[in-house]
Fold:
Amino acid sequence: MQAGVDSDVFEQLVETVQRFARQRLIPAERRVEEEDAIPEDIVAEMKEMGLFGLSTPEEFGGIGVNVAQEAQLIEALCYASLTFRSLIGTNVGIGSQGIVIDGTQAQKQQWLPGVASGDIIASFALTEPDNGSDAGGIRTSARRDGSDFVINGTKRYITNAVRAGVFTVFARTDPEKDGADGVSAFIVPADTPGITVAKPDRKLGQRGTKTSDVIFDNVRVPETAILGGPDRLNQGFKTAMKVLDRGRIHVGAMAVGQGQRMLDIATDYALERKQFGKPIGEHQLVQGMLADCQAELHAARALVRATADTFDRQGSAIIEASCTKYFCTEAAGRIADRALQIHGGAGYMAEYDIERLYRDIRLLRIYEGTSQIQQLVIARRTLAQRAA
Ligand code: COS
Structure:
């Protein structure tokens, strides 16, 4: 059982994050959209609040929440634009969790205090130009040279790469094997010679988030850079999968936070906008859309909480995590669509927030495993369980 922080401290933290999202972040959203950047004073406040270290164990300077608590806090934070979450997202999730789950004590001591404070941004470098869903097909190579490894290859769409202090890089250490088996994870400081971070990608939404290609050209690291130490050679794919399981619950919580925001916006609009002599919320077809949003949101929130509890109890929840990401992000997509529809023509206009939120939410069905990959994980494991 992962205990997390005491309930009174936690309740206070949730209230603080709720207030911060409403009073500080939402008013800054349009500026972030226009400038494609998060204002530095907000970054500083997020550091002060300890948000970068939410999931880092207390002994390494973090807050040490468990998965259920993380989910509630991320839901609260994601009432505001998903862009703000993206800034802390890799430190709380995929960028650091490999070190937390499988790192050696020395690796934890070296990296986690800086990750927790936000002074070091941790970035997760798995995806490549030719390998997205097929994560086991990694082509980036790490060739042994004495007691060093030399990394060559390109990673793609790497969140927070331009800000990164450290990368968890997945590379093929056994060229004889072409699947998941011959892959290792390395902890690579971002200033290691041979690393180039390309200019940030232009995207459909979530302006202010930064993703880029990262090119590794003869990047030399010692064998102690293998995540978990030299004994975990060729074990990197499993680390990636474990990190993504936890991450998928986190993304489910993001979908619930934004889903609630979009439902609230649509409900306010339905109360205020009049057609045929009365507020549109009094028309039953609009009520149908609101009801579907509310029902799906309740189901999504309950699923996130149940899965997070299972993860905290068992230390793993593979099928549940995939079901959660799949259901919650698809539901959020439907909520976004209905919320925009309720706005009519106004919903298509950039003056209304829903146009931006609709674009932002689209990514949730793609990253950390597409909906189709979640279906595949769920179905394969369901079949295997019955066949066993
Ligand atoms: N936890 C621990 N171990 C896991 C695991 C998990 N969640 N999932 C798989 N493994 C292990 C398997 O048990 C297997 O180990 P053994 O060889 O010892 O049996 C090994 O990892 C390989 O697993 P599998 O055969 O299922 O690998 P596949 O290549 O078939 O790939 C999918 C599985 C498609 C599920 C995987 O590639 C995937 O999740 N892809 C999506 C990647 C993704 O989310 N990308 C987003 C990028 S980050 S934003």
Notes: DSSP finds eleven helices and nine strands in the chain. The longest helix spans residues 236-272.
